[in-house]
Amino acid sequence: MKKYSEIHIFQKGFNYSQDGPGNRLVYHLSGCNLKCPWCSNPEGMEITENAIPLTVENIVKEAVSCKMMFIDGGGVTLTGGEVTCQKDSIINLLHQLKENGVHTCIETNASLKNCEEIFKAVDYMIADFKSPDSEKLKAVTGADLEIIKENLLLRAKTKKPLLIRIPIINGFNNGKENAVSFSEFFEELKAKSGSENLYFEILTYHEYGREKYEKAGKEYTVKNGFVTAEDVKILSQEIKNKNLKLIHT
Predict the structure, then answer these.
(1) Which of 49, 54, 96, 211 lies 20 to 30 A from 228 at CA?
(2) What is the pLDDT of residues 176-191, one digit of tens each?
(3) Model pTM score
(4) What Cα–Cα distance (Å) separates residue 238 from each residue in 4, 71, 249?
């Protein structure tokens, strides 16, 4: 698999529990297929001259050398950008990490086709589910809702852990109607997959990416994106009403 031996990243470092279970070595991969205006890592949207190319072999070597630091079920997490944009190299990496006994996790938007091998191979998967409204999702982010739904079901059917994170943004996906649509899809996903390893987390809007946009000379287009405690309460209650597992990492 030498053909797919290089991965482009823009950042790496350790983080505890927020990027998968335990203490994890997190690689931020360059390149993304979406254009979410609230992105907190806009520097990772494209593979630029600032991206650092690392070989799969070097990443595996580094991960193995860090095993003693992977406490509480930790390991390696691949995030973005969007991990599946470099899918051939990622498949190679996941298999080699597994062969070396390293727990793996990815954070993904789950919006690309033909990623079945990744979604089946990874130990722990975290996926954003940004909107149950297909037209609004497509217009704002560029994502195809049906592809996302198919990918989440594919992963859920493996019965391996799947954490679905819902970033709620005022004027985009908050409010009672959206909350009901979110919870109905999640209930259907659980029923179709038969998985008890489904978890859900609500992420409230933040502006971590604003300064990065402005520093790059780009316009940060989100206006009044902050949500209220009531927005969080409404969505939380709808998820709980479906007997789904709502967590906070």
Answers:
(1) 211
(2) 999 999 999 999 999 9
(3) 0.96
(4) 43, 34, 19
